[in-house]
UniProtKB/TrEMBL annotation:
Pfam families registered for this protein in UniProt: Fasciclin
Protein name per its UniProtKB record: FAS1 domain-containing protein
GO CC, any one term: extracellular space
Signal peptide: 1-23
This protein's record includes keyword Lyase: no
InterPro entries in UniProt: Adhesion/Biosynth-related, FAS1_dom_sf, FAS1_domain
Domain FAS1 residues, every copy: 34-182, 184-333
Keyword Translocase: no
Keyword vocabulary terms for this entry: Signal
Alphabetized SUPFAM superfamilies for the sequence: FAS1 domain
Length: 337
């Protein structure tokens, strides 16, 4: 009987040990938490410069907290290339802190976007504000996807980047590793980066041929500053085809007339976003003498009426740049030539 009791006690002890061990394993599994974006970056030596930049600018807590973010994370080599472009002796500790902070925010989207959800092309809003004003608009990013390749703001041939490793999942979003620091785009940069505006780019950069020398217009666009921003109504490629072929109004236009057409798409009335436009609002352009456009609102659409009473539909509103905003339109606006 004593032997039976001893064996029974040993069996109970063994069973209890197993149950406790299993319970501990379950507790460990339940309490193990997924890392945040900031924690993943801190644990990867390829992101040491990114971590230092986040710490210096006070953004670590943002990417370590609640919410859902998409972070396009430059590697150390990408940051070094960026610092080299700024001049000698520039590094994460010496670059202007405001430039560094706004540049970092230009890599962050306030929602989680896995690579599988990225369409062929789209614009997204970053967290980088155009000014220090409350509720200031934020910089737009142009995202393209071809196969599994994701390109941002035109890629390395422009001022953008390419995703090299996608979908590092975090508890508060996702990280996509990129091979360059994504610089904050100007109006001209956004035109260059979007293939839908290739013809506009070709016309503005023309120095001879069918469109003549338009270098003065390009100089004017490049001279637009954040302190005195402008708004560009940008015709897409099909709009230029319609205007310059067949019975299009710009067929046979002289260089001077092309200049006036281009100027008629720019207003220095400020950074005029679509929600600031009012129905029948007059919009002065930079033609000389000044010619006006008219905003026509209705049915949830924004149209721009030109001097010939033609309406151009805004198909892509509020492409935000550092020095102004672009609204894509489906017709070349016709001034009085």
């Amino acid at each position: 009987m004593k032997k039976v009791l001893v064996k029974f006690s040993a069996l109970v002890l063994f069973a209890g040990t197993v149950l406790v061990s299993c319970s501990d394993d379950d507790n460990n599994n339940n309490t193990q938490q997924q890392q945040t974006i900031a924690q993943i970056a801190s644990g990867n030596p390829n992101f040491s410069t990114l971590v230092a930049a986040l710490n210096r600018t006070g953004l670590t807590n943002t990417l370590n907290g609640s919410g859902q973010f998409t972070v396009f994370a430059p590697t150390n080599d990408a940051f070094q290339t960026f610092f080299n472009s700024l001049g000698q002796n520039q590094n994460v500790n010496t670059v202007d802190i405001n430039v560094l902070r706004n540049t970092l925010l230009n890599h962050v989207i306030a929602t989680e976007i896995p690579s599988s959800a990225i369409p062929a092309s789209t614009y997204v809003n970053t967290l980088s504000p155009i000014s220090t004003a409350n509720n200031a608009p934020t910089i737009s990013m142009f995202v393209q996807k071809s196969g599994s390749t994701v390109t941002l703001n035109g890629g390395v041939d422009s001022k953008g980047a390419v995703v090299t490793t996608a979908d590092l999942d975090a508890s508060n979003g996702v990280i996509h590793v990129v091979n360059r620091v994504i610089q904050i785009p100007t109006i001209v940069d956004h035109v260059i980066d979007n293939p839908s505006f290739d013809t506009l780019q070709a016309v503005v950069t023309s120095t001879s041929g069918a469109f003549g020398d338009q270098s003065a217009v390009l100089t004017a666009l490049n001279g637009i500053t954040a302190a005195a921003p402008a708004t560009l109504f940008a015709p897409n490629n099909q709009a230029f085809t319609d205007a310059t072929t067949g019975t299009g109004f710009a067929v046979g236009a002289t260089a001077a007339q092309v200049t006036k057409v281009l100027q008629y798409h720019v207003t220095t009335a400020g950074n005029v976003r679509s929600n600031q436009l009012q129905n029948n609002q007059s919009i002065p352009t930079i033609t000389s003498p000044v010619q006006n456009l008219t905003a026509i609102l209705g049915g949830g659409n924004v149209d721009i009426r030109d001097s010939a009473n033609n309406l151009a539909r805004v198909f892509q509103a509020d492409i935000q740049a550092s020095n102004g905003v672009i609204h894509g339109v489906n017709r070349v606006l016709r001034p009085q030539l």
